[in-house]
Specification:
Elements: E1 9-11, H1 20-26, H2 36-53, E2 58-63, H3 66-77, E3 83-88, H4 92-102, E4 106-111, H5 120-129, E5 135-141, H6 153-163, E6 168-172, E7 191-195, E8 206-211, H7 213-219, H8 231-235, H9 250-267, H10 269-291, E9 296-298, E10 310-315, H11 319-330, E11 333-337, E12 352-356, H12 363-379, H13 388-397
Parallel strand pairs: 1-11, 3-4, 3-5, 5-6, 6-7
Antiparallel strand pairs: 2-8, 7-8, 9-10, 10-12, 11-12
Length: about 400
C-alpha cells in the first residue's frame, strides 16, 4: 500500500486540520490595511473570541505562538522578584514557569505527576500557608498536551477563593479553547492565554491574551511590560494599527474570521463542545476495549480528567514509535509523538503516542483514525481486546 493517495490525516495535537473554507479564506491577495472594512472585521473577530472564552473582559491579539503569550502574559502582570505558584500536570505549566524564572520572577511548583490532575486539597493547604500572600499569580493549564490531563479550572478557582488568597489565576487554554467548556468570567479566571492553531482551526502564528479588570489594574504597575507586549495599547488603541503594534496579520485574520464563523455562528459553541466530547468518548471506548487484553493504556485513567482534545496513549516500548511509523507510511495517518513522558527505561518516550482530536473533526475521520490504528496493531502483532472500533461506532451512533 502507498501513502500517496487520498488526503493525509494529521492527528497530532496541533497544528490541527484546517477546514477547506479556512484555507480558501487565506487564498487571496493582500488587502488595503487602511481600509475601514478590515478594522470592522477585526472588531467582529475580537467579539467572537470573547464569546468562545465566555468573557466580557478584554482580548488582545499578538503575532506569535503560544510561547509568545506565555511571555506576554507575565510581562503584563509581574515584576522581577515577584513570586508565582505553578501547578504542574505535565510539561507545559512548568514551561510557562520557566519563562517566568527567566524574567526574574521567583517560581514554586506543586507537581501532581504525569497521570493526575491538580489536587485542590493540596492547593488549598499551600495557599493557606502563604500568610504573607507572596504568590502574585497561579499558573495552570486546562489541558496539558503532553499528558492529556484535563484540569478542573472551576474547582481550582473555587479552591483559591476558599482560602481568600488574592493571587491572580492565569490559565493556559492553548490545547483546549474551542474544544472544552470554558467560562472565564463565571469561573473567575483573571488571565487566559491561547493560540490559533488548535481548537480555533487557524494556522499557527496568532496568540491571544484575555484578561479582566482585576488583572488590568494589577498590570498597570508591572515594570516588566515592554512596548510590544503591552496589552493596554492593544485593547485601548488610538489607531487601528496599534491593535497589532504594527501591520495587521491580515491573512491569519481572514482565516480566523472563517473559523469563528464555523464555531460561533454555524455549529454553535455548545454543539462544538458536545461534538468534541462525543468523539473523545468514542476514542476512549476503543482504547478501553483494546486495553482489556493487552498493554495499550490511556495515560489518564479517570474519564473525568481526560481531555476532549488530545489523548496520550501508553504502550510497551518501542511500540508507540513503531505504530506511528507504520500508520504514517502505510495508512496516511500521522499520530503525535510521546512528549515529555520519558523514563529511565524509555528516555525517548517510544512507548507513547498521542492522538489529536481537536478542531475540524467528524465521526468519519474519527472512525477512520481508529481503523488505521487497528490495522497498525494487527501488522505489529500487538495483543489487544477485540471489537474496539465497533465499540467506538456505538458511541458515535448515539451522537
Amino acid at each position: 500500500m502507498t501513502r500517496f493517495f487520498g488526503r493525509h490525516h494529521i492527528a497530532i495535537p496541533g497544528p490541527s486540520i484546517l477546514p477547506d473554507r479556512v484555507i480558501q479564506a487565506i487564498n487571496r491577495s493582500a488587502p488595503d490595511i487602511y481600509d475601514p472594512e478590515l478594522a470592522e472585521m477585526v472588531h467582529g473577530v475580537i467579539k467572537d473570541l470573547k464569546t468562545v472564552a465566555g468573557t466580557d473582559g478584554h482580548a488582545a491579539i499578538y503575532i506569535c505562538n503560544g510561547h509568545g503569550v506565555w511571555e506576554g502574559s507575565l510581562t503584563n502582570l509581574l515584576d522581577k522578584g515577584d513570586k508565582v505558584l505553578v501547578l504542574a500536570t505535565g510539561i507545559f505549566a512548568p514551561g510557562w514557569g520557566g519563562f517566568a524564572k527567566a524574567l526574574g520572577i521567583e517560581t514554586e511548583t506543586l507537581d501532581f505527576g504525569r497521570r493526575s490532575s491538580v489536587d485542590t486539597d493540596i492547593l488549598i493547604e499551600r495557599l493557606s500557608q502563604d500568610k504573607k500572600h507572596e504568590f502574585k499569580a497561579i499558573l495552570v493549564v486546562q489541558v496539558d498536551t503532553s499528558t492529556s490531563v484535563r484540569n478542573d479550572i472551576e474547582a481550582i478557582s473555587k479552591a483559591i477563593q476558599a482560602t481568600g488568597h488574592p493571587a491572580l489565576l492565569a490559565v493556559d487554554c492553548i490545547a483546549s479553547l474551542g474544544c472544552e467548556k470554558f467560562y472565564m468570567d463565571e469561573w473567575n479566571v483573571d488571565v487566559m492565554i491561547t493560540g490559533s492553531q488548535k481548537g480555533l482551526m487557524t494556522p499557527p502564528g496568532l496568540g491571544f491574551i484575555y484578561f479582566n479588570e482585576r488583572a488590568r489594574n494589577v498590570g498597570k504597575k508591572a515594570e516588566l511590560k515592554t512596548p510590544y507586549w503591552d496589552w493596554e495599547r492593544r485593547v485601548n488603541p488610538e489607531e487601528f494599527y496599534q491593535l497589532f503594534c504594527g501591520t495587521a496579520p491580515t491573512h491569519h485574520l481572514f482565516a480566523l474570521r472563517e473559523a469563528l464563523d464555523m464555531i460561533v455562528h454555524e455549529e454553535g459553541l455548545e454543539q462544538t463542545w458536545q461534538r468534541h466530547s462525543k468523539l473523545a468518548q468514542a476514542i476512549w471506548s476503543a482504547f478501553d476495549i483494546w486495553n482489556s487484553e493487552g498493554q495499550i493504556e490511556m495515560n489518564i485513567k479517570d474519564r473525568k480528567y481526560r481531555s476532549h482534545s488530545v489523548s496520550t496513549i501508553k504502550m510497551k516500548p518501542p511500540n508507540g514509535k513503531l505504530l506511528r511509523k507504520w500508520t504514517k507510511e502505510n495508512t496516511g495517518l500521522t499520530l503525535g509523538i510521546g512528549l515529555g513522558m520519558g523514563t529511565e527505561e524509555d528516555p525517548d518516550s517510544t512507548g507513547f503516542f498521542r492522538i489529536g482530536h481537536m478542531g475540524h473533526l467528524n465521526p468519519n475521520m474519527t472512525l477512520g483514525l481508529l481503523g488505521s490504528i487497528e490495522v497498525g496493531f494487527e501488522h505489529l502483532a500487538i495483543s489487544r481486546g477485540k471489537g474496539a472500533v465497533e465499540s467506538a461506532a456505538k458511541v458515535i451512533a448515539d451522537m
